[in-house]
Amino acid sequence: MEFDISMPKCWRRETKGHKFCPGCGHGLVLKALGLAIDELQIQDRVVFGCDIGCSLLAYDFFNVDTMQTHHGRTTPVITGIKRARPDRIGIAYMGDGGGYAIGSQHLVNAAARNERITAILVNNTVYGMTGGQMAPTTLPGMKTETSPYGREISQTGYPTQGPEMVAAITREGAYVARGTVGKLSQLKNMIKKALETQIAGTGFSFVEALSTCPTNWSTNAKDTWSFLEDEMTKYFKVGELKVPAKEE
Amino acid sequence: MAEKPIQGEKRVFMTGNEVVAWGALAAQADIMYGYPITPQNEIMHYWSRLAPKHGKKFLQTEDEISAGFTTIGGTIIGARAFTGTSGPGNTLMQEPMSMAEMYRVPAVFIIQQRGGPSTATVIYSQQEVTLTTFGGNGEGYRIVYSTATHQELFDYTIKAFNTAWKHRFPTFVLADGYQAKMREPLTIYDPEAKGIEMVPTVPTLGKEGVPGVDRPPVHMTNTRNTEEELYEVVKGLQAAYEEMWPEVEEHEAVECEDAEIIIVCHGVVTRSARVAVSQLREAGIKAGYFRPITLRPFPVEPMKQSIKGAKQLLMVESAQGQLARLVKDSIYGSTIPIEPMFRPGIGISSEEIVEKVQSLIK
Q1: DSSP E strands, B93-250
Q2: B78 touches chain A (CB under 8 A)
Q3: Domain locations in chain B?
Q4: Domains of chain A
Q5: Rounded Cα–Cα distance for residues B42 and B15 (Å)
Q6: Same topology between domain B9-194 and domain B251-361
Q7: Using CB atoms, which residue from B69, B203, B206 is nearest to A80?
Q8: Which residues of chain B does A106 touch, with a Cβ-Cβ cutoff of 8 Å?
Q9: At how many degrees (to 10) do helices B64-76 and A74-84 cross?
Q10: In sequence order, which residues have a C-beta less than 8 Å from that of residue A43 and are 6 or more positions away?
Q11: Cβ within 8 Å, pair A109-B62
């Protein structure tokens, strides 16, 4: 089993294959996260929180203690954990709806307070679990169940640029990046740096991962990849937005 | 560790919010999470002044939703954590409270009732009874203590932590703006000096060892895939709730044995009922009062027993029958007449109760 060998050590084998739809990017983001946890050897210290939406399907994904919360509320739960037990490594895992819509006040304020937690947000431009409604990240003109004629930016605004927003409200010491499941090794390194930032205690850490939702995009494999690589990256620039200064 | 915040016991003159902060400190609470709303603000004010001196923590969150969920986070990782709120904040906090019911998170909530609906007044009411006992989507798997005096505020703040951690249901101290802001003498004490042992806290998440290697991982989900699956979960919660019910329920029944008329009240209104009953008794009127201390779980059997010989009940509350609904549900089957004295959002004096009773008796 070649694939088995490539599974991160902290993945829980008993719960694989995972529960996500075929072609979903969540598995890749969680692979990047799993590899980062393995490399940092922090499996015993991580407390993982997942949101409502497709991210909830990650509740038994890892051999790490996990709490599935409510829609948008993973950031405050992990914040509460971290404040009470600063020796734990808190990871809040959510989708774009959870982080940028219903839980945006928590993301903004956790970032502003420089909470020493790591938020990982999966951006697939739609509400997946509820059936493909328009998300804060839906691209201009993009058709969804609640924008059946295409997202009309004059009525619904432009897609939220989360990392740009978080970078603007955090201070030196925070880590902010946007990765993509199309570049897994880079995404893993970003998540690793985010976790290192939390461990160093210099500030808030945030990684948005561009991801895929062929189920709600109604795309085949080729078009799924093309939407991720060609369309999404036009609007969502991949790269690091804020990196803590290296200690001398 | 720093020395105990209270040595032995001490007579003090404080506002109710200050009392709550001292009660939490005496109970060895580790952390408070909170968001400003009147009339509970001074709990945070006092706590945030006291906390660093005693190695405790405070976090001011962005709203009450966050205050509730951070409190859950702190509790689930093993801290004795609490929050306080009121009115519209209580409304917002129902979402985390509902999660605390499902996961049996022993978080402690202090509610200082203000007027409603909406913004209403910042002063006083008993209009958050329904919300605090049965708010949220679910069945109200909570423990709610309704206090009448500053001494009780102190006693039940300590007790709330122990009840919560022993029975693992979210636990509430329900007071009001009058109790929050009024200053009154009481005795604060070190629980240990009174023989009260604090129930130890245990982390649900983040125990020692590598999950999946040294121990199984803890995977908490509150999501169920089928109706039947959920039904089993709720039945389990219900069974646990019913099991702790007799141990937790509390009431006060005064002069009920031979009473012809029994005043039913709770919280701060009890103080007026107490005075009214003694004045009525002096005037030769056989009056008593029954007061649930736990609004959830409701003292159903004690209430039924207490009203057995009475000819009528006078329901007195600073709300439009929120306590009355709990009472009627509890004494179902009884044909005793119930006279309402509902004063939503305003205080009720002993004189008003006496006058009302006299008008009913003659």
Answers
A1: 108-113, 143-146, 171-176, 183-189, 219-220
A2: yes
A3: 9-194, 251-361
A4: 22-242 (3.40.50.970)
A5: 9
A6: yes
A7: B69
A8: 62, 65-66
A9: 50
A10: A9, A10, A37, A62, A63, A64, B210, B211, B212, B213
A11: yes
Q: Does residue A82 contact residue A90 with C-beta atoms inside 8 Å?
A: yes
CA distance A42 to chain B (A): 9
Cβ separation of A81 and B220 shorter than 8 Å? no
B220 → chain A, closest CA residue: A67
pLDDT tens string A193-245: 999 999 999 999 999 999 999 999 999 999 999 999 999 999 999 999 999 98
What DSSP letter does each residue of A34-70 carry, written as one string? HHHHHHHT-TTTEEEEE-SSGGGGGTTSBSSEEEE--
Q: Is the ipTM of this complex over 0.90?
A: yes
Mean pLDDT of A84-93: 98
- State whether B217 and A12 contact (CB < 8 Å): yes
Contact pairs from chain A to chain B, CB under 8 Å? 135
Show Cβ contacts of residue B93 under 8 Å, excluding neighbours closer than 6 positions: B64, B65, B67, B68, B83, B85, B109
pLDDT of A246: 77
Asked whether the beta carbons of residue A80 and residue B210 sit closer than 8 angstroms, the reply is: no
Q: What is the pLDDT of residue B362?
A: 75
CA pair distance A63, A42, nearest whole angstrom: 11
Query: Is the CB of B206 less than 8 angstroms away from the CB of A69?
Result: no
CATH fold, domain B251-361, is Rossmann fold (3.40.50)
Q: Measuring CA to CA, which residue among B260, B263, B340, B276 is closest to residue B308?
A: B260
Instruction: List the structure tokens of B66.
Output: 């966050």
Is B73's CB within 8 Å of A68's CB?
A: no
Report the C-alpha gap between B53 and A106 in whole angstroms.
29
Contacts of A59 in chain B (CB under 8 A): 219-221, 223
Q: For residues A38 and B205, what is the distance between their CA atoms, to the nearest angstrom?
A: 19
d(CA A51, CA A28): 17
Q: Are B100 and B153 in contact (CB under 8 A)?
A: no
CATH architecture of B9-194: 3-Layer(aba) Sandwich (3.40)
Residues of A in contact with B35 (CB under 8 A): none
Quote the DSSP letter at residue B308. T
- Cis amide bond preceding B191, omega within 30: no
For tokens 């003694």, the residue is B278
Contacts of A89 (CB under 8 A, 6+ apart): A42, A45, A46, A47, A118, A195, A198, A199
